[in-house]
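Recap slide: NitT/TauT family transport system substrate-binding protein, sequence and predicted structure.
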Amino acid sequence: MIRRLLAAALLVLCAACGGGQSAAPTGSGGKAVTLGFSAWPGWFPWQVAQEKGFFAKNGVTVELKYFDSYTDSLTALATGNIDANSQTLNDTLASVSGGARQTVVLVNDNSTGNDQIIAKPGITSVAQLKGKTVAAEQGTVDHYLLLLALRKAGLKPSDITFKPLPTDAAAAAFKAGQVDAVGVFAPFTTTALELPGATAIATSKDFPGAIPDHLVVSRSLAADRPEVVQGLVKTWFDTLTWIGANKAEARTIMAGRAGVSEQAYADYDAGTTIFSLADNLEAFSSGSLEKQAKEIGAFLIQSGLADTSPPLDGLLDARFVQGVSS
């Protein structure tokens, strides 16, 4: 039922997924860099950065590429079709396990409730998923959350019927009553919870620190054009400062990109904890990120999602957040 982590097959998928990507110049070979992001509250500030000109202010020319499919963004970075992407730590480890050379240069946020396992009426606990059908995007972050929740409840992956679907399709299938539960992240949680009586029976809030989200760049971009990476990281913190001073306008921009109402977007606030510069400096210097990476790698092996521990050498690069503060 559960095969290896998605990223182990990313290189095989290159031809299929690469066809949908743009042919913009990349960071290692031209002036512009292509930065990918997808539907997650902690990544929508990139839309603000683009609309308010913060990339140009920091001397970087960026093609900001929005992916309707999060999986496609992971594949695009792993196969070199983009230079940088916002993605979770566990999905980055998946790509590294599959042979991709990637580096984490920034912590965007920690998921503190916006990743959820949502069940139909009558199911009020993870233990009650035994024998039920649960949908999620295979090998990505909410599949990981589902496995964490099952283990905590004393269930094995084989105790459920897992239905692999892209996140948007999984939310729609659950709303239509085609599955008993679903693992989704905001804003797709809003779709799933439109099923009358549906409730979240487990969230990322139950697993503190398990789902950190990052700006991840190709190893070659960090090595060959560090000034570009520095500009991206500086842009992020400039954007957060602007958002803090212009909350209403920022929310309008981010809700528009998310395709939800401003009130719905406001409801996501508690479920995503944005990391400040001080938070970033602490995360990189304290060893907490490396500790999380080791724990996630071990869990992926124990759960049958990976064969070997992903190599951590070169995975974390603190110099860019340190460069902002210097």
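The mean pLDDT is 89.
The chain has two domains: 6-110+211-325, 115-206.
(End of recap.)
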